[in-house]
């Protein structure tokens, strides 16, 4: 199991794989970008533990080249923002063709029905919350573009959401690897914690508004 996770992060191309997965899953929410980030961080935790044992025993080994946690988090966060911005621009310019494309995706159209009202109601902070919800990132980015929201209103929250999500995912993988070992079991527990955060975010987004009505003077 340890070797399996180590081989996942054995080459520098893991950064490219993670970035492509995170970048594209705004359009294809079924991509396992969160799992890749968690698994790579779990492998890093295992390699760090192995290096500590080798240093203590005076032995040498062929330690795998694993991603640096900070670089991994920055790559995931950067790809998240770039993907959000690409989806925003596409929706802003897509018009009717974009609406038809969304309608063909059962996952996106279902998420749009569940979360759309909440996202319009909550504004910026819900961009952060929706980053953890299933397909919430897609709904927010595409919805902001379709509604012609100003990029200055959307991009800072997207950047914050991407950074928080990346740091949280990397931290889960690393701590899971430290506490449970760099195995598929440790990675699975960390992924379950990530999914639990997503379920909690989706529940919070679906809760009814506490206010009596929409705020006046909203920007479009």
Helix content: over 70%
Query: Can you give the mean pLDDT?
Result: 74
Distance between the termini: 51 Å
| Beta-strand residue fraction | under 5%
Describe the main β-sheet briefly: none
Number of domains: 1
Our Rg estimate from Cα atoms comes to: 19 Å
Number of strands: 0
Shape: globular
Structural class: mainly alpha
Order of secondary-structure elements: HHHHHHHHHH
Low-confidence stretches: 49-66, 209-220
Count of DSSP H/I helices: 10
Q: Could you describe the 3D structure shown?
A:
With 220 residues, this protein is mainly alpha-helical. It has one domain. It is 76% helix and 0% strand. The protein is built from 10 helices and no strands. The chain has helices at residues 2-8, 13-24, 33-57, 69-94, 96-104, 106-122, 124-130, 136-146, 151-180, 184-206. It is globular, with a radius of gyration of 19 Å. Mean pLDDT is 74; it is low at 49-66 and 209-220.
TL;DR?
With 220 residues, this protein is mostly helical. The protein has helices at residues 2-8, 13-24, 33-57, 69-94, 96-104, 106-122, 124-130, 136-146, 151-180, 184-206.
Give a topology summary:
Elements: H1 2-8, H2 13-24, H3 33-57, H4 69-94, H5 96-104, H6 106-122, H7 124-130, H8 136-146, H9 151-180, H10 184-206
Helix pairs in contact: 1-3, 2-3, 2-4, 3-4, 3-9, 3-10, 4-5, 4-8, 4-9, 6-8, 7-9, 9-10
Which key terms come to mind for this protein?
mainly alpha; 10 helices; 220 residues
């Amino acid at each position: 199991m340890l070797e399996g996770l180590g081989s996942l992060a054995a080459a520098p191309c893991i950064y490219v794989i993670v970035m492509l997965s995170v970048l594209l899953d705004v359009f294809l929410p079924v991509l396992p970008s969160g799992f890749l980030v968690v698994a790579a961080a779990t492998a890093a935790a295992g390699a760090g533990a192995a290096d500590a044992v080798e240093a203590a025993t005076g032995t040498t080994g062929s330690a795998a080249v694993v991603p640096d946690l900070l670089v991994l988090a920055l790559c995931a966060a950067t790809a998240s923002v770039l993907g959000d911005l690409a989806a925003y621009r596409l929706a802003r310019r897509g018009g009717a063709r974009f609406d038809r494309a969304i309608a063909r995706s059962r996952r996106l159209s279902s998420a749009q029905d569940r979360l759309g009202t909440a996202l319009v109601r909550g504004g910026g902070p819900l961009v952060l919350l929706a980053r953890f919800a299933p397909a919430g990132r897609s709904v927010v980015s595409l919805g902001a573009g379709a509604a012609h929201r100003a990029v200055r209103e959307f991009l800072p929250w997207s950047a914050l959401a991407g950074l928080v999500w990346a740091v949280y995912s990397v931290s889960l993988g690393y701590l899971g690897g430290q506490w449970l070992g760099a195995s598929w079991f440790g990675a699975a527990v960390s992924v379950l914690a990530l999914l639990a955060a997503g379920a909690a975010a989706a529940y919070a987004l679906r809760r009814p508004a506490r206010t009596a009505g929409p705020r006046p003077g909203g920007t479009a």
